[in-house]
Amino acid sequence: MVRQREARRASITHLCTALLWLFTCFNELNAVKIVKIVVPEIIQYGVQDAVILDCDYIYNNNTSGLVVKWFFRNKTRPVYQWIVSQKPQDMGILKGRVDLAYRASSDPLKMHRALRIVKPDTDISGDYTCVVSTFMEEDSRTKQMIVFVPETNFRLIQNKTDDDTVNVICAADGAFPAPNLTLATPERYSAVASVTLLDADLPSPAEFICTLRIPLAKYAVKKEAIYYPGPISTTPEMPTVADMQLAAVIGSKGEKSTRISI
């Protein structure tokens, strides 16, 4: 009896293994799989006329119902769709902005897999998901693209309103995504865009350094200024209305631990 039970168990185990092998082989014969997705991580606005997002894949015997879709930021609505044997379509935020004649491959089952976006702007920054599917299988990959804009006006202002203090303001306009501004003063480091300092606390001369960073774009730029403590001897550089609004928002109390984005 014991031997019969062991033989029966062994037989069932072999049968299950064989069925699993057959199932795996069947799936591989009908599989579609993305092997590479190419999405530029960072591009600068206005530098290039177009950007290409590619999604290469392999397929096997059953390609019935093969469709390539691209989604932007979420997977509820595609911004691009290509059903094999039909013309590609651009939709949503990319409507009218995709070169639908672009061909990424001479393979008729891969021809229109890629996006060629014309005149990329900041509004198309975000996650892109490529989904390749058939009636039997589906595969997807996601990558992020950031279209960044450097600052158009970056200034470091010393506004000396009386003989023994100086108001240092760091400001920038036009950058995208929202940058971080940090202001370094002698022997201290401040993560604010405005600070008021006593001349008595400063060396002569003193160096002020303002750094603008756009972390998502891995972009950074600095402004430096030399300051000589002492009585007012020249007409102070007056900040603009925007500069003063910025200073009002973050406070002009010389706080050293506040971080802001503008």
Could you describe the 3D structure shown?
The protein has 262 residues and is mainly beta. It folds into two domains: 32-148, Sandwich (Immunoglobulin-like); 153-250, Immunoglobulins (Immunoglobulin-like, Sandwich). Helix content is 15%, strand content 41%. The chain contains two helices and 16 strands. It has helices at residues 2-29, 241-250, and strands spanning 32-38, 42-44, 50-59, 67-72, 78-83, 89-90, 115-118, 126-133, 138-148, 153-162, 165-173, 180-185, 188-190, 194-198, 206-214, 219-227. The strands form four sheets. The protein has a six-stranded mixed β-sheet with strand order 2-9-8-4-5-6, with no helix packed on it. Mean pLDDT is 79; it is low at 15-30 and 246-262.
Features:
Immunoglobulin-like, 2 domains, 6-stranded mixed beta sheet
Task: Set down the secondary structure blueprint.
Layout (H helix, E strand, L loop, with lengths): L1 H28 L2 E7 L3 E3 L5 E10 L7 E6 L5 E6 L5 E2 L24 E4 L7 E8 L4 E11 L4 E10 L2 E9 L6 E6 L2 E3 L3 E5 L7 E9 L4 E9 L13 H10 L12
Parallel strand pairs: 2-9
Antiparallel strand pairs: 1-3, 3-7, 4-5, 4-8, 5-6, 8-9, 10-11, 11-14, 12-13, 12-15, 15-16
